[in-house]
């Protein structure tokens, strides 16, 4: 895992340009380099290894997912969204570089993600197209952007569990699920294996958000690397506000069990890394 993290860090350092004009490159690199759990790229590579796929393609796919994730955080932290000042243990991009530069940095990173997925050589055109489609669906209106729209529209409202689950599935879960499927797309899968990995990704994607809701009320900002208690302060619906702390913890464990069960029926034999990542999603403290 450490070797994979170093490989992704080198790729980001190589592909995120320092020489983008007017300080844009500096803002982009500040927003993505040297911090973060890199869970999404690790899921890409773990799924690729599970299906004995193309590792160089998975390196590009994981880097692209991390660029999308980082851009979303930059925009999410801006005053027009969550108005946060701390991310990954340092001032947010708009605090450091100003709102306009932060907006442009996020825009440029979104575009760069698809540039990374479409090199002149090294990845077959059909695989490039499939990876781009998976990433676009996970990050657009049916996924991350749509979930953020629901989130902003839900402040101060009481949501039932089904609506809250749909919001978090879109905002957080679909990109994590998409990471698993992009890794799987780098190899050969049967329909049953693809369905099982889809279920695995859905379970850990939702578990990630449930645990985020738990950590928001149980950890301080120094541990989280971002402002603690923001959801409660903003009167946002969360799994803790809906289920209580103990209920949210039980639900996270249920989702972990669902993820492991999906791997067990996948027909794959090399799923140890995916299993470990499912546990890390639930057992983490930041």
Descriptive overview:
This is Polyprenyl synthetase family protein. GO terms for molecular function: metal ion binding; prenyltransferase activity. Belongs to the FPP/GGPP synthase family. Its cofactor is Mg(2+). With 286 residues, this protein is an all-alpha fold. The chain has 14 helices and two strands, in the order ααααββαααααααααα. The chain has helices at 2-15, 24-32, 39-50, 55-76, 93-97, 99-116, 125-139, 144-153, 161-185, 191-218, 221-224, 230-233, 239-264, 272-283; strands at residues 86-87, 90-91. The chain has a two-stranded antiparallel ribbon with strand order 1-2. β1 (86-87) and β2 form a beta hairpin. α7 packs antiparallel against α9 (161-185) and α9 packs across α10 (191-218). The longest helix has 28 residues, at 191-218. It is globular and about 45 Å long.
Strand order, biggest sheet? 1-2
Kindly report how far apart the N and C termini lie: 18 Å
Shape: globular
Query: How much strand?
Result: under 5%
Helical/strand content category: mainly alpha
Helix percent reads over 70%
Low-confidence stretches: none
Mean pLDDT: 93
- With helices defined by DSSP (H or I, 4 residues minimum), what is the helix count? 14
How would a textbook summarize the main sheet? 2 strands, antiparallel
Radius of gyration: 18 Å
Tell me the total number of β-strands.
Answer: 2
Order of helices and strands: HHHHEEHHHHHHHHHH
